[in-house]
Amino acid sequence: MSLVVIKTKTDRALDILLYTVLTMAGLVTLFPFYYVIIMSVTPIIEVLKNGGFVLMPSKFTLVAYKAIFQSALVPRALQITAIITIVGTACNLLVTTLLAYPLSKKWLPGRNIVLMMIVFTLIFTGGMIPTYLVVKQTGLLNSIWALIIPSVVSTFNLLIMKSFFESLSEEIQDAAKIDGCNDMQALYHIVLPLCKPILATLMLFYGVTHWNEFFNGIMYMSDPKNYPLQVVLRNMLQQPQISQELLALNPEARVELPPETLRMALVVVSTLPMLVIYPFIQKHFTKGMMLGAIKG
């Protein structure tokens, strides 16, 4: 028997008001990105005619994107960022899983001491200068590993995965051990197939962090050839007068492509991949966050 909900005029008015507010909030949120896309594909002549503000151009051009990908700087930075994101996320998931799984076992000797040490790093850190000195002494400067190894595990993500492991049934794992599986085999064959939601969640967390790598790129990279994409974008936004020089554009292209158009196009290039990936793991992301928060 289905329950029929009868709404009064007040309820319907509140629904209309709520949807109106949510629609306006969505438009306000999406407008900056829409404006960036429009400015990146609008010819400079039309931009100048409209006083630098265009909502719906009559003509479109992809010259800015062509110039960006034909330059030597941006494709190299995009490649470095992609490598950091893929390799770094894989290392993050591997280390986080191998550390969270044993810590989820209450019978593990010294478990509480290790957890206290891990939580301590969540509250107190070594500091920027000691971390830089460690990276320097280990010879990681100007290497992509400097953007991966120092952040190979996140305490927050580790605790989320530990809580997820604790929410799984111990009986299933015990049954696997009775059938002859050791701990690693039980983890690989039994536990990990049940962990798709939390793995997708942490993959998103780690992946977005690596893709947006900015501060460590400035700290540990002194060679412009090793800059990740976000550092290149920062340099172009901070120094618009040298944007064209950074891309090594020829004089004709510099006239057609002002720094503003180049920066807008690069913002789109640096943002679009994460926007494309997110919808595919969004359902796992929501489930993983809920399940990972069941226990502390």
Automatic annotation (TrEMBL):
Signal peptide: none annotated. It is a multi-pass membrane protein. The keyword Transmembrane helix applies. It is found in: Cell membrane. It holds the Pfam family BPD_transp_1. The chain crosses the membrane at residues 16-38, 80-101, 113-132, 144-165, 186-206, 262-281. It comes from the Bacteria. Keywords: Cell membrane, Membrane, Transmembrane, Transmembrane helix, Transport. Residues 78-281 form the ABC transmembrane type-1 domain. Belongs to the binding-protein-dependent transport system permease family. This is Lactose transport system permease protein LacG. It comes from Paenibacillus allorhizoplanae.
